[in-house]
User: Fold these one by one.
Assistant:
Number 1:
Amino acid sequence: MKIIIVGVGCVSAKYLPEALRSAGHEPVFVADPAAFTGAARAALETCVCVPADITDAKDVLRALTGRPDVLSGASALTSPFDEVFPVSRQVAGELGLAHPPAVFAELADKARVAELVPEHSPWTVTFDPRDIPAGLAARAPGPVLLKPSLGTGALGVRMLAAAADDDLAGAVRDSGVPGALDQPWLLQQVVTGDLVSLEGMVHDGALSVVGFSRRTRIGATEVANLFPADDTLPAPVRDRCVTAVATLVDRSGLSHGYVHCEFLTTAGRALLIDANAGRVGGAAVVEQIALAHGLLPGEVARHALLLPLAPQTPAPRYLPPQRTRSTTSYWYGLKDGGVVRSVSAPLDTPCLHTRFAVDGQRVPPVGASDYAWVGMLTGPTADADRDVDRIVVTTDDGDRPAFCHPC
């Protein structure tokens, strides 16, 4: 089966081509290998790749219809990114290709998720940035986050105090979000707490928990992830997270697919802030799940991609929580930002290393957004803790240490 995959992350790009081929599938990526580096670029260069703007359905259609060789024999089109599901669903419909169910695109909308499970969500109000109701900001119960309904990586997210409505319009215009004025935006109550993610999969409408992740941020940048973090969370908090996701699955009708549901937990509460339904966790979570459960990363990445298209796909043999091992991933960058020229990671580390920034790319300071990532180091917790401090990033301003923050 030839599968067209709209977009791919740097970590999954290392594994998906070979993992899909080994299962009898021919992958084609809507991606530009030149935007990647290291093992991710090398793996993509073994595949047919079609560059396009994956946030723009018209551009993806243009690129694919201009390649009859790519469309010949293709049977399915999908994406590993939940925010791209609305685009990929539209493109698949135009081309007559199989695609994950409509619920995937529905749950990519943060406003829809808050509407489905309001009892598990922070206070949320949705608005059209072209027609902001008077007095909208005054309705907020204190400080709020302004965020796009479709978006990832904290791009466009701002914390606002008692903002006036004209400030909302300006903040949206200045957000840098592609198509900012063409999608709904949200005001969501600020909740202070720990960022926790439930990693799991749904089969025949039943949720199975693979484990909990616990993330650390500096500002708007996620910089470290502990998995599994189940033992660090009180049982009532874990139970509330499971109840929230199971309720969302039931009310939405999601039948098959992975979930990476993000919560803010505080004082025994767990509030769902992002459903990330239909996909496995991003960044290095695929590697962490695999290492913790004694699997190959390609097994996890392949199953997550294929499950919604072919529910009979055999699942990896996930272990009970008590038999998993602790892993940590550090998502490092530069404290003050800069132009990346090269990265030196220790050759003797047992950890997995992935470059995100290509040579010559300018990255913002850690704290600005997840676009500040230079690379990731993932492995058993003790090894990752030791070896992240041995990474050196060479910039236009000289050598700099990898900047991140321990879990």
Number 2:
Amino acid sequence: MAAPGWEPGYGAPAGGGPAAPDAAPAPAPVPAGAAYSAPGYGATPAGYGVPAPGWEGDPGPDDPWASAATGPDGPHEDPYAPAPQGTGTGGGEAYAAAPQEDPYAAAPQGEGRTCVACRAGHVDTDGYCEHCGHAQPRERDHLEEELCSVAAVSDRGLRHHRNEDSFAVSATALPDGSAATVAIVCDGVSSASRPDEASAAAAGAANEALLEALPRGADPVEAMHGAILAAAAAVTALAPPAPGAQNAPACTLVGAVVSGGVLTIGWVGDSRAYWVPDDRAALARRLTEDDSWAAQMVAAGLMGEAEAYADVRAHAITGWLGADAYDLEPHTASFRPDHPGVVVVCTDGLWNYAESAREMAQVLPADAADRPLHSAQVLVGHALDGGGHDNITVAVVPFAGPAQPHAQTEAEPEAEPQARPRA
């Protein structure tokens, strides 16, 4: 059931995806034919941050998409945050952008790099400081991109030796001259081989497919479906040529497209999208339903939410991209919100610390629509402050205008999925 004030969007949620609110206004028009993209790389190894007991749903007892486990309480002060900038408000405001002081920022490339630890010594060709011996962060350890009112941040986190997430953000012009904004976030499956390569291949392929389809007028839902299939093909191509090869590269994917007053979401796996209205008195929503063992148990009525997510199998995914994926069925859904807000697209490295839509809204700064990069930094800082057990990747996509409702068709039932454990 749609939340009060929401109109269901057009386009059937493919593969049994959740039905939730619509979101964010399209950015300022882009010159016809223009296309801009900025790929990024970040990581989120799965299997961390198993929800604590004591689940609660978002407001609205009859809303099937508002329930989620509650994570750590509220925003925390980020010990890694540089000095605050500006006057924005919201949880984790201290994690303001200040690249020169960011301990996770990639050090400049080329000769004469200064050590990020002691800020005095020079970095040798092996990546170590000649003065203090500190190993310098790799380029993919922490990345940030801001482009045409969309921004994304990816961080290795505090427990993993590499970042296995990736993202891509881009903007392009539609045939009528209006703009379309794209955000793709992928999480490499840590138990598979080369998860970092899988997520990078998927994010790049999905982004390219959308930038090819949207400018020629393709329906956003169909374009998103095709983009997920293109991402799946790119990850499958990484598998060894030997037939029946085990442990093929794999990843999850979630993407958002804002175009023509419509928010289109697509996903496979347990990376998520949330809708957070600018008016925090309005109801925030989770727009995706996990492809996971726990979600499957709850949906089948076999277990309650608290029981399912407390199980050691809770985070075993039942959908992924890769050569050994079982009966790939991309989920897509479209929404037309009647008020402005932002879409938060993220890996479980973030949502493990802000499970419910209400929690996500509490952590997200109130000025997120005006400062998407800052807001993404705040969210990453919240996860780091909570323990940073996983790689963390998040994209923040503003949606600014109300739109007219369209009819939404029923979702077709999914085939029984098979579970794949994640490390």
Number 3:
Amino acid sequence: MEFWLIMLIVCAVVLGVGGWASVAAIQRHQLHGRQERWKALEHRFHQVTLDAERYERSPTDALAAPGWLDRSSPVVRGFSGTLKRAQRDRAELERSVAPAPGRAGREITSGSQGPASRLNPTETDLQELELLVERLEDAYRDTDRAVRTTGWSSPGTLQVAHPQFLLDPRWGRPAVLPRLGALEAKGTQTPVQTVKDFLDAAYPLRRATALKVLRERSGGAGNAYRAQKALEQLIQTRRYTTDRHGFLWPGSTVIEHWGVYRTLGREADLKPQDVPPVEVANALWALLPEDRGLPDEELLALAQEHLALTPGFASGLTQSLNEGIARGLKALPENVQRTLGEVAPNGVQLPAAKAKIHQLLVEGLHEGLITGRLQRHPDGLVRRLRVQWPSTYRR
């Protein structure tokens, strides 16, 4: 065999082995990175568990938040159920993850031996675990705020009739949007986390409205792009979901159990079209007496006043414009008026603010009826169907 042919074969073998080694090294590096991310998420999960249990172990912490010791409190019981479900879901997710490849029973990673080092999680697995951890963190944040609000004046006694009033401080208050934090990827706060923090204090919002507000408050074209990409990532990873009306909700929120509502008016940053029907339905439920029903007109009028849904200055402007349109139509030739009448049988008018507000209230009433919040009795009156609300609206 010619010498050059032997050298060619040797070079091919060396290159093949080197290429295989390079690919294996890249795969080991990628696997190690995914395992480290899994380990970090596990640490966050365990941290919530430790934070919740420290009140029983530490007298100082127990004195700072004694409400955690009241196991008869509905908000504490609600978090306990959320924690148990999260632990079960985490165990099921871990069992579904493929084991890390190895030889002779040894993992190919050289890091610390632990649950993460035995797994080969995919990006989908990591997204599932991150969603689960964030849901648990949301529930813990709500509960901790609630127990610190109520204190421990008398065990087993909740100071408010509606437990969710303690979970969400916006309950019954003007719909004011928070400020948007920095979007530059500096430190530990990523643009995704910044946008999530904003949405957590502003939801539910229409997707288009959320994008508009994020752009306005981002402070520059580059930041606006970061905010848009962060919002898309939150939706893609299901950390935020969109309901059938186009409103964004945290992945940890069960809309059927969500009993919060906000008011509008001069102090509010939202317009009536930015309010989801389910929020109006919650307000209608809260306004209804416990022992009797109300006719539609009375209930909707009561809700309009309570939610501060007023036409405002724009209503007068719209009315003036419609009057001008009517006068202009009368000045047109009869054949043109007849043609316009065929094209627009109901007339050429701008939608009035009063009509929009009434439509919002009607949609809220319909939402309350189909979601089991409200019911219509044979006498035509609307009454409460749900007797009470769950202690938490978190998964």
